[in-house]
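Changelog-adjacent note: as of this version, every example in the card shows the full chain rather than a window. The one below runs 135 residues end to end.
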Amino acid sequence: MKLNEIQYVSFWHRMPDAVDKIERCRFDFPEGKWKIETENGVKEGVLDQNEKEGVFIFLNDTIHLEEDLEEYRAFDYENDPNQYSLSFFLKVLFRNKTYFAVKGCSPRKEKHFREILDYFGKLIQEKDKEIKKAN
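Full-length structure tokens:
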């Protein structure tokens, strides 16, 4: 995987305090935009090069998405927030090939479960705080 191959990265996760609440984020690499959805509403902004590289490094170098998580690969039809057995769903769409998705169901069984949840949850919270400060 290369940085310039990524079209977008999308992620959603359940809130630990209420399983019916979901936070979402999407990072569109070519357009250089991000979008989050939290209980505070929907927010959008500009995705800078450092943020793109940070997401890429996490996916490629930290969790080795395509290699380490091959056996946990998920498919679009499984991307259903109404399926309460899912804790999160991560999808990376590539420009020159299909997507790679991972669903999180069991932290004890799935590799990098906690790292994925923590990394994207932190990104969502940081973006949410930036917006609150600006308002």
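Structural remarks: The longest helix spans residues 113-134.
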